[in-house]
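Moderator note: this is an archived Q&A kept for reference. The question asked for a predicted structure of one protein chain; the sequence and the answer are reproduced below.
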Amino acid sequence: MDSVFSLEPDEFKALVVETGRAFQSLGSVKYGVQEQEEKSLLFRRSLYIVENVLAGEPLTIKNMRCIRPGLGLSPKYFDLLVGKKVNQDVKRGTPVSWDIV
């Protein structure tokens, strides 16, 4: 008694076509910065040194801030970096990067 839910050939063809369209509409996931986002990266916030820091001194909430432009490390690393010592003298206005820690 499967005739109730069986498909006719034209209905089956439509099912195949629509299934293909549904699969194509899923697209693909792309991680990282997309080409369209590159120009807007400067408008994001990032970490900067806001006071001169000598080699061996720790990064603190007073000498490091999250400001624009987005040339430094992401703000998500702020708590991780607080307390870490810098390995070189760093001038005020320098974007924070991994090579200074």
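Archived answer notes: The chain has a mean pLDDT of 92.
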